[in-house]
Amino acid sequence: MRHALSWGKKITVLNFITTMSKPFRWYLCGMIAAMCMVAADNNIKPYLIKTIINDVGRNDYTYIWIIVGIYALSQTMMVGAWAFFDWCNSKFSPQLTSHIIKSMINKINSYPYQFFQDHLSGDIMSKISNAAHRTPQVIDTVVIEMFQLSITILISVILLTTVSIWFALAMFVWISVFVLILYFSMRKAGILSGNAAEVEAKAGGLIVDYLANMFSVKIFATHDFENKLLSKTLNEYINKSRVKILYLTVFFTKQGLIYSCYIIGCVCGTFYVEC
């Protein structure tokens, strides 16, 4: 999957993010560590609630206050983890955006003059803007949603091995299938998003150049030509964006159904253990 915002040598999104994030890797590591704590909290709370309910049902209050204290500590840890994540993100995202802009400007400065003859200045500006502002959003999505979900499921499988090795093995097989589906689906989603981003940058470039050359447009009366060119590009953007959105809708629906199967499997496993 190539980066939709690159010129010349093709670069994958992962390589682009890794290269640009390297100067601020400690903030990124802090964000990942915070999500690990949130994932741990997501796993321990259901167990604590179940333990409290069982103890109350048996009228056994020997350790209930200790368990409640652990639950309160876990809740406090989660709040602290999110606060730490936001702090790291406040340091990471603005600096990353600035670094991307500076790096891409320096890269463009090394290009020959022919490059600027072949590319609209507005197109160049749109691609730099997209890279600078959307890369932090992609990282937030991966760290918050994908990484946290992966760690949560991994911890669940580890805990299940203490209950039933066969049930844990079945969940591991399910996770492997889920990861494969996710990998290939995200590759296609990346290609579709890249295609839509290319056309979006082209449309933005046309608008910028249209406004920047308004005097020439009025002098030579090329309004109709500019409008037709922009309309054609916008229609292309609409079509490619629609394809991307529909694909992502189907993908996230499938992801939700697969995750629901995981929840149902966990519930069935709990009843199995209880019986």
Architecture overview:
This protein is mainly alpha-helical. The chain has two domains: 1-118, no CATH class; 161-275. 88% of the residues lie in helices and 0% in strands. The chain contains eight helices and no strands. α6 packs antiparallel against α8 (223-274). The radius of gyration is 25 Å and the shape is elongated. The two termini are 48 Å apart.
Task: Tell me the major beta sheet.
Answer: none
* Structural class assignment: mainly alpha
What's the number of extended β-strand segments?
0
Q: What order do the helices and strands follow?
A: HHHHHHHH
Low-confidence stretches: 1-7
Shape: elongated
The N- to C-terminal Cα distance equals 48 Å
Residues in helices, as a percent range: over 70%
Number of domains: 2
Radius of gyration: 25 Å
Mean pLDDT: 76
The helix tally amounts to 8
Strand content is under 5%
Write the layout of secondary structure elements.
Layout: H1 13-21, H2 25-57, H3 64-109, H4 113-118, H5 121-160, H6 165-212, H7 214-220, H8 223-274
Short summary of the structure?
This protein has 275 residues and is mainly alpha-helical. The protein has eight helices and no strands. It folds into two domains: 1-118, no CATH class; 161-275.
